[in-house]
Structure formats: C-alpha cells, structure tokens
Amino acid sequence: MAGHSDSSSSEKKSGEAMTDVPTFSAENLQNNMKVIYYSRTFMSITGGVIAGIFGFTGFVGFIFYFLVMTITSIGLIAKAKFSVHSYFDSWNRIILDGLMGGLMSFVLFWTFAYDIVHIF
C-alpha cells in the first residue's frame, strides 16, 4: 500500500503557527482503495463458495458474510501495520467501503455453490 506524503519537508516560518495537515497523494489513495475493493470482492466470492459448500442457509449465511468481512477488515488493517491514517483519510475507508458490493458477489456465489453441492 502506498502512504501519504510526509509534511516534514515543508518549512515553517518563524512566528507563524501552522498546523500539520497530512497530505495524501490522489494516485496512492486511489490505488489503496482499489486494493480494498479487490480484496473484498475476492473474499466475498471465496466466502460465498465456502458458505454454499457448508450448506449455510438463511440468516446463518449472512452472519458468515459479516464474519468474513470483519476478518478481511482486520487483515487489511494489519497489512497497513495498524496505522490506517498513513494510507487512508478515514477509518471508514478500510472498514465499510465495498461492504454492500461484496454482499452481492457473496450471495451470487453462495447460491451457486449451494445449488451445485446440495441440489444437483
């Protein structure tokens, strides 16, 4: 993952109080968001296939999805070395982004794997 630009190279004028505002590279932030999106999509598909093979139905399958997404979020935070603000502008980016898009992939592969294993 790509980090933000370090503001230590900027010079402070004497007598003028400046606050350190982290600056983010748009390309790096976009690349990091792409990594999150691809990771969530991959884990949604994998989780859906596993849920279908195990025969989860109804509410249990959705609980399994949110468990998989929690593990994915923890993995992404660990990949960022637990300093999320170095790579993203907020915690919501790593925890919530892509959650509903991944749900659609999960349900698709969940029903597909369930049908293949348990019905046919």
UniProtKB/TrEMBL annotation:
The chain crosses the membrane at residues 94-114. Its main location: endoplasmic reticulum. Pfam families: EMC6. It is found in: Endoplasmic reticulum membrane. It is a multi-pass membrane protein. One of its GO terms (cellular component) is EMC complex. Keywords: Endoplasmic reticulum, Membrane, Transmembrane, Transmembrane helix. GO terms for biological process: autophagosome assembly; protein folding in endoplasmic reticulum. It comes from the Eukaryota. PANTHER family: ER MEMBRANE PROTEIN COMPLEX SUBUNIT 6 (PTHR20994:SF0). This is ER membrane protein complex subunit 6. The lineage of its organism: Eukaryota, Viridiplantae, Streptophyta, Embryophyta, Tracheophyta.
